[in-house]
Amino acid sequence: xxxICGLVGFKDPRPYVEHMLTRLNHRGPDNMGLxxxxxxxxxxxxxxxxxxxxxxxQPMTNEEETVWLxxxxxxxxxxxxxxxxxxxxxxxxxxxxxxxxxxxYEDEGEAFLPxxxxxxxxxxxxxxxxxxxxxxxxxGIKPIYFHTQNGGLIFAxxxxxxxxxxxxxxxxxxxxxxxxxxxxxxxxxxxxxxxVPMIEPxxxxxxxxxxxxxxxxxxxxFGDGADIKFDExxxxxxxxxxxxxxxxxxxxxxxxxxxxxxFDSTTVSIVASRYVTGKLATYTGSFRSDEWYDETRGAAxxxxxxxxxxxxxxxxxxxxxxxxxxxxxxxxxxxMGIGSFSQYVVARAVAQRFKVxxxxxxxxxxxxxxxxxxLIHFLRQFKVNPISGxxxxxxxxxxxxxxxxxxxxxxxxxxxxxxxxxx
Length: 423
Description:
The protein is of the alpha+beta class. The chain has 14 helices and 15 strands. The strands form three sheets. A six-stranded antiparallel beta sheet has the order 4-5-6-7-10-11, covered by helices on one side. A hairpin with a 2-residue loop joins strand 8 (145-149) and strand 9. Mean pLDDT is 88; it is low at 419-423.
């Protein structure tokens, strides 16, 4: 990942951007770049993934130096976009996938955003029109926060970088606080900091003449699924997952994968192992002191099946005290679940060898957790053999029962109102 920050509408932006960059260095230790001009400042800390040369450093500009870019993320269809842009007469200074954003903006303004296939948070300053464009990818994988004040705008990849700017004061947002206490998370653009919203997934914001307006270039659409059979849905998932993982292997540095033995990370690791050069490196966190949480046996079985170079990162509860300060600093805001502890410990180990790690993050959100699949299995078996079907419930953990009861009750509703996968 990289870090971006900047501000517009304030006098002498350079010292503010410099200070914000010091809070983002951990996101991109390979290069730190800064550009200022006309009351605008853009900053970037780089983790070099594609085109490791200085030509890929940011802030990045077009041929006439009238459009400037800082971005965090990767564009997976950049080669297709680049080829089309070259045919139209655009000239590229690097092999960086992010450079296509500059030339797309030159041609189309923010209308280019739906054409991007990737995970990205970007800021583009158009010196010709004196306007700033901020945008975040469809699912909000890459973060970007902002603050407006007296006609000016400040943005950054992390809240701590915004708070490093003296124009931003820190105070608790009561709405965000209520949301967090209730749901262990905040929603939409809300954060725990008053006056520091997050750009939402698929959203863009334009600053011009001291005013901002916003829009969405993408929002999810859900069909009723009435014409889709379960087996067809599974095959569609496999096809999409394979294409997605292959695109995510776009890198000039080594790529590894998390492997917890869960459905999501297992899928990613299996697909990645087919396409990487040599053996895929996989990483699992281990809680040896408590077998209920330990996933090493399942992960080892998957690793053996796909022939990966498997690594086990052991941790104990006592390690939490050691990493607590660094963990809180990295999170920026509290996040639900203690899983962030194990993820941090494993990520720290991976970072000693790799810059890129594939994950199954988001799988639980797509599949609403694992208990729903046990319910689907039960319903299928019950139709064939009711006695053997009930035997499945012997494999359900007590903590999973509320989840199962919820989904079972959903089955009593009308077909179009169901909230889980059709059977």
